[in-house]
Amino acid sequence: MPCIPDHINGVKIEFADSVKNSVDQKVVDALQFIISEDVATGYVFTSAYISSANDQHEYPSRHVQGEGKAVDISRINGMKMSLFYSKNASVKAITNALQNKYEGYEHKRENFGPSFKKKLGLPHTVSGHADHIHISVN
Fold it and tell me: Cα–Cα distance between 13 and 48 in angstroms, integer?
């Protein structure tokens, strides 16, 4: 099973201690698709913090289905989304850009975060996700 690398397109990837970063190849491909230093015009994306991947969730979560089909990003450039999304222009711009870019990924399933919540490209009601981006693949 592939692992999420510690750098993607010039952006450092950091992991919570509990994260098992071995995931479905489509998750790795999705991260490579959305993450880049210049994803948000006018802002530099230097680091992402993955708080969950193939770990600590229970079925039917996409995190534990089929070798890990989901990942959560909860910090941008070292800043927690829960504290800085509404207060820091760079965190908000990069978070929104990541979510918007993910909508163009061919294997997208879930795209939940502080900007919007979509499943299979359509608006979806689900609780939580104001403090992180959750993406999953088919």
Answer: 5
Taking only the tens place, the pLDDT of each residue in 19-63 is: 888 899 999 999 999 999 999 999 999 999 999 887 665 545 554
The tally of CA atoms less than 13 A away on the side-chain side of residue 55 is: 14
Compute the distance between CA of residue 14 and CA of residue 34 in angstroms, rounded to an integer: 16
Cα 42 off chain centre by: 20
SS3 sequence of 27-90: HHHHHHHHCCCCCCCCCCCCEEEEEECCCCCCCCCCCCCCCCCEEEEEEECCEEHHHHCCCCHH
Residue 67 has phi, psi (to 5 degrees) of 70, 30
Domain boundaries, the chain: 7-137
Question: How many beta carbons lie within 10 A of that of residue 50, not counting itself?
Answer: 20
Q: Tokens at residue 85, please?
A: 């999304």
Half-sphere exposure of 56 (CA within 13 A, CB side): 11
- By three-state DSSP, how is residue 17 classified? coil
- Entry pTM: 0.91
